[in-house]
Amino acid sequence: MDLGCHQGQFLKKVISQFDVRGVGSDDWSESQKGPESISWEYFKADLDKELPWPMEVDVISAFEVLEHMIDTDGFLKRVFDKLRAGGYVLISTPNINSLRNRVTVPFGAYPVGLEYRNLIHHVRLYNAKLLARHLRDSGFIDIRVRGVSFLPLSGKFGATELSAKLANLMPALCNNILAIGRKP
Question: What InterPro entries is this protein classified in (predicted)?
Answer without folding.
Answer: SAM-dependent_MTases_sf (IPR029063)
